[in-house]
Amino acid sequence: MADHTQALSFGAAAADYDRFRPRYPVDAVRWALDGLGGSARVVDLGAGTGILTRGVLALGHQVTSVEPDPEMRAQLDAATPGTTALAGGAETLPLPDGVADAVVVGQAYHWFDREPAHAEIARVLRPGGTFAPIWNLRDDRIEWVAELGRIAHMGDSTGSVLDKYADFGPAFEPIELGEFTHHTALTSDELVSMMHTRSYWLTAPAERRETIDQELRELLATHPDLAGRATVDLPYRTIVLRARRR
Q1: For residue 203, which phi and psi values (nearest 5 degrees)?
Q2: Burial (Cβ within 10 Å: 0-12, 13-18, ≥19) of residue 143
C-alpha cells in the first residue's frame, strides 16, 4: 500500500505545485481519451491542483475532479473557473455507478491501493469506458537529469512505471501504452522551487532539505549543460497507460 503521509504532503505546496509542475502534452491527453467522441464525461481522479483537469477541459470534455487533499482542492477551484472539486479518494469515489466515459489520473496512480481502487474505477465507468493513468516523467536518459533525480531522491523513472503496472485487474482489458515527449523551460530558481513540490522534499527533515538544495544549486552552477544558462529545458517523457472497461 502507498505511503499516505507522502501522498497527502502536497497541500502545503499547492500554489507552487500548480505553478511549477509540467503540463501534459495535448497529444497525450487526446490519446488517453481516443475514441470517446466530443464532450465525454471524464473523472479526473487524484486531480491535485487541476493541471490535468484543465487539459481535459481544453479538449471540450466535461470533467468531474476528485481530490482528497483540501488545500489541493482549494487551489484547483481557484485556478479552474467553473469547477468545484469533490472530496474523495480512489478507493471510495463519491460518484454513482456508470457515470463516467473515462477516468484519468495524473501523477497519482502510484499512490492508490490498487485492488479496491480498480473496483471503484470500474464501478463508476460505463462498459467500454476508458481508464488512463498519465505520468510526466523526467527523461533520465540524459545524464544531468538522472543526476537531478539522484539528488532529490526521485525514483519515478519511465522504467519503473512500465515494469510495475502490468494490468488493471479483471474488470479491464489489456493495457495499451502511449509515450510522448516534451519539455518545460525553467530558471534555476524555478527548478529548485519545482523540486520543493516533490513528496520526498516536503516530508524530509530540515537538514535533509538543506542538503538537497545545496546539491541542486551546485549541479545547476557547475554542470556543463547547465552552468551560466538563464533557463533550463527540463525534458519529460509522458507515459499513458490506457485500458477499456470490460
Answers
A1: -105, 5
A2: exposed
Q: What is the pLDDT of residue 6?
A: 46
The residues of the chain scoring below 50 in pLDDT are 1-8, 11
Question: What's the full length of the chain, in residues?
Answer: 246
Cβ atoms of 79 and 49 within 8 Å: the answer is: yes
DSSP 224: T
User: Roughly what angle, to the nearest 10 degrees, separates helices 188-195 and 206-222?
Assistant: 150
**Strand-pair partners of 181:** 237
For residues 23 and 63, give the distance between their C-alpha atoms in angstroms, rounded to a whole number: 17
Residue 196: what residue type?
H
Give the number of other CB atoms < 10 A from CB of residue 139.
Answer: 16
Q: What is the pLDDT of residue 158?
A: 62
Residue 204 C-alpha cell reads as: 524530509
Q: Which residues of 81-117 are buried (b: 16+ CB within 10 A; e: fewer)?
A: eebebeebbbbebebeeeebbbbbbbbbbbbbebeeb
Measured between alpha carbons, how far apart are the two ends of the chain, in Å? 25
User: Measured between alpha carbons, how far is 104 from 221 in angstroms, rounded to an integer?
Assistant: 38
Report H helices in the chain. 4-7, 14-20, 26-32, 51-57, 70-79, 114-124, 143-151, 158-164, 188-195, 199-203, 206-222
What residues have CB less than 8 Å from 170, skipping those under 6 apart?
246
